[in-house]
């Protein structure tokens, strides 16, 4: 058992489960710059729904937004977001801010481990100079760094922090062993010791790049099959009978990982003089799916003889994935923007999303379920359990004559809709 005192900087979807896991063993310092978040956690509430209320109450975490409290720890885990900006370039400002926060409170012998997704080299090239400047200490002599990429999957109650194998890396072989020992104390699935920090950084960023490209292929197939009047999911079901066919499906690729991480790798590649054609081509396809979905709905409304301007369109789901309140980088907003460009009357509903956060993040006003009626196009963008449980009669009662239902995630039975002569389109 290690004798380190842990601090976790950033208590969001990634940092809170990490802090809770360590806090079950001994007191852990949980830091966040958002005082409202600290107050919420102190009261035993977690708006991300990643941690059960009883775990928040029973775990031993000292919640604080006072950076001076970090000096009590000697093993610091930084778990802040690493988004992209409007130009789809890496935005390291949260990571730099966290480095500036911990820097003045570092002591000799401290270890700083980054969990945030970055491009290879960011820990040592971007973060270490800040830590040295803020602390007045020398990295590699006075304090040390490591990298252990997060693998949190928001909303996933099966693959959690403690039962996913953890990649760990350290500045020296000795530091690697300490980092491995610390994480092994809480991660029951064990650790994998990467040979270098850069290898660990690269491993993280390609995990989601691989998924992004596989989904991009499915999305491109759906664009082709739409023109051939073939149902994409029928094709995938048939092809899936082959033992080595990979079970990916088309869809909106958002969230803080798959829709973001590839841009970190392409950014670094281009800085090194290489243009990553395949990765960027996949990103282009996935980034265009929101507009494609909206266009298919508009095309149907035109063929059905509907007046587009003022047509009532309901988008069901705003979060980036099912049964999760996470709104970060939701690609549903691309569907919404495309619909708005046509002048339709747009209604947006999501039982999981926080209304205030939706308005702050996207300028979107959510409506109650009771408002979803007299609809010309009902678009299910997220497979929330509440939507999957909706009966056909419930759906049909909300529709105008000749309305269409657009099932992006393939959650409804086509035969039921066909028998009732209600138009159902799926990606």
Tell me what you see in this structure.
The chain has two domains: 6-195, 3-Layer(aba) Sandwich (Rossmann fold), CATH 3.40.50.720; 288-427, 3-Layer(aba) Sandwich (Rossmann fold), CATH 3.40.50.720. Helices cover 39% and strands 14% of the residues. The protein contains 16 helices and 13 strands. The strands form two sheets. The chain has an eight-stranded mixed beta sheet with strand order 3-2-1-4-5-6-7-8, with helices on both faces. It has a five-stranded parallel beta sheet with strand order 10-9-11-12-13. Strand 7 (166-170), helix 6 (173-184) and strand 8 form a beta-alpha-beta unit. Helix 7 crosses helix 10 (277-287) and helix 11 (289-303) crosses helix 12. The chain starts with 5 loop residues before the first strand and ends with a strand.
Strand content: 5-15%
Give the structural class.
Answer: alpha/beta
What name does CATH use for the topology of the largest domain? Rossmann fold
What gross morphology would you assign? Answer: elongated
Count of all domains: 2
Question: What Rg is obtained from the alpha carbons, in whole angstroms?
Answer: 24 Å
Low-confidence stretches: none
């Amino acid at each position: 058992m290690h004798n380190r005192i842990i601090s976790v900087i950033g208590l969001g979807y990634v940092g809170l489960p990490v802090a809770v896991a360590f806090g079950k063993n001994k007191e852990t310092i949980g830091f966040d710059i958002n005082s409202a978040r600290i107050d919420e956690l102190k009261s035993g509430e977690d708006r991300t729904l990643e941690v059960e209320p009883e775990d928040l109450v029973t775990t031993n975490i000292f919640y604080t937004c006072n950076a001076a409290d970090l000096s009590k720890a000697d093993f610091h885990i930084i778990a802040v977001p690493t988004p992209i900006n409007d130009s789809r370039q890496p935005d390291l400002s949260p990571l730099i801010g966290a480095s500036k926060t911990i820097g003045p409170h570092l002591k000799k012998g401290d270890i700083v481990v980054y969990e945030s997704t970055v491009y290879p080299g960011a820990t040592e090239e971007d973060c270490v100079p800040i830590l040295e400047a803020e602390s007045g200490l020398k990295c590699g002599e006075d304090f040390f760094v490591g990298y252990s990429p997060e693998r949190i999957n928001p909303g996933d109650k099966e693959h959690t922090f403690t039962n996913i194998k953890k990649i760990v890396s350290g500045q020296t072989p000795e530091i690697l062993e300490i980092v491995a020992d610390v994480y092994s104390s809480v991660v029951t699935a064990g650790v994998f010791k990467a040979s270098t920090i850069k290898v660990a950084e690269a491993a993280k960023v390609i995990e989601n790049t691989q998924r992004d490209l596989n989904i991009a292929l499915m999305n491109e197939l759906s664009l082709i099959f739409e023109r051939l009047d073939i149902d994409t999911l029928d094709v995938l079901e048939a092809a899936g009978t082959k033992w080595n066919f990979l079970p990916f499906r088309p869809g909106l690729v958002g969230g803080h990982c798959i829709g973001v991480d590839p841009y970190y790798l392409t950014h670094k590649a281009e800085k090194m003089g290489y243009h990553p054609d395949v990765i960027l081509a996949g990103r282009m396809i996935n980034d265009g799916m929101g507009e494609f979905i909206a266009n298919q709905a508009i095309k149907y409304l035109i063929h059905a003889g509907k007046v587009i301007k003022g047509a009532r369109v309901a988008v069901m789901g705003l979060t980036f994935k099912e049964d999760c309140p996470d709104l970060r980088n939701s690609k549903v907003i691309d569907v919404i923007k495309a619909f708005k460009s046509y002048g339709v009357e747009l209604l947006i509903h999501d039982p999981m999303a926080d209304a205030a956060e939706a308005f702050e993040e996207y300028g979107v006003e959510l409506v109650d379920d009771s408002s979803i009626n007299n609809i010309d196009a009902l678009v299910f963008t997220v497979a929330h359990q509440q939507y999957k449980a909706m009966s056909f009669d419930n759906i049909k009662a909300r529709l105008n004559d000749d309305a269409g239902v657009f099932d992006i995630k393939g959650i409804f039975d086509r035969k039921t809709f066909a028998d009732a002569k209600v138009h159902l389109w799926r990606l």
